[in-house]
From TrEMBL:
Species of origin: Caenorhabditis angaria
Position of the signal peptide: 1-18
Protein name, per record: T20D4.11-like domain-containing protein
InterPro entries: T20D4.11-like_dom, UPF0376
T20D4.11-like domain: residues covered: 25-174
C-alpha cells in the first residue's frame, strides 16, 4: 500500500519543474541528466512489489537516489529548477517508507483501508489530471487527507507527520497551484 503513497509523491513531482526550462539544457547537459537519473530509474522500474522490500535493497536504492541528487546538483540547468532538491525530498521519503514507516505499512496492508485502496486504483486517472491543474490539486488534496486520516487512525499521528513534511517540501519546491502543507 505504501507504494500508493510513494506514487503520489512521484506524481506531485512531475509538474514541479518546468520542462521548458529543462529544454534549455544543452546537449551535453542533457546527456549528463540521463546519466544521473538512469541508475536510480533502472532500480525503481524493476521493483515488482515494494511490500517485499528488503533492507539491503532499500539501502541500495537510497544510495542510488542520493547519488542521483548529487549528480543533478552539479548540472546548472537542473539545479536552477531545483530538481536536485526535489530528488533529495524523494530520497528522504523513500528512506522513511522503507525504514521507520515499515511497521505501519504492515498494519495498513493487513487492514487494506478503503480510501487508500481507492486512491491506488485510480493511478492511471491521476496521470491524466496532471494537465488539468485544478482537478489535479483537488484530487491530490483529497488523497492527502485520505492518507492522513487512515494512517493516523491505523498507526498514529507520528507516522503521518514525516509524510506531511514531505508533501509540504514538495509543494514549496514545485510550481504547484495548490499547497499541501495545510493537509
Amino acid at each position: 500500500m505504501w507504494l500508493n503513497i510513494f506514487f503520489l509523491f512521484a506524481l506531485i513531482i512531475s509538474p514541479s519543474f518546468s520542462y521548458s526550462e529543462l529544454e534549455k539544457c544543452d546537449f551535453a547537459e542533457s546527456i549528463e541528466v540521463i546519466g544521473c537519473v538512469s541508475p536510480v530509474l533502472d532500480i525503481v522500474t524493476r521493483l515488482d512489489d515494494i511490500g517485499n522490500m528488503t533492507r539491503a535493497r532499500a539501502f541500495r536504492i537510497n544510495e542510488e537516489c542520493k547519488n542521483t541528487s548529487r549528480c543533478l546538483s552539479a548540472i546548472k540547468c537542473t539545479s536552477d529548477q531545483k530538481l536536485d532538491k526535489t530528488m533529495d525530498v524523494l530520497c528522504d521519503a523513500f528512506s522513511y517508507f522503507s525504514t521507520d514507516f515499515f511497521e505501519c505499512q504492515k498494519n495498513i496492508t493487513r487492514q487494506n483501508p478503503p480510501c487508500i485502496r481507492k486512491i491506488g486504483s485510480q493511478s492511471q486517472h491521476m496521470l491524466s489530471m496532471q494537465t488539468e491543474p485544478e482537478k489535479f490539486c483537488k484530487f491530490t488534496i483529497k488523497a492527502s487527507k485520505c492518507f492522513k486520516e487512515e494512517i493516523t487512525d491505523i498507526c498514529g499521528e507520528q507516522y503521518w507527520t514525516p509524510i506531511n513534511t514531505y508533501f509540504s517540501k514538495l509543494s514549496k519546491l514545485g510550481n504547484l497551484p495548490c499547497k499541501l502543507n495545510s493537509v
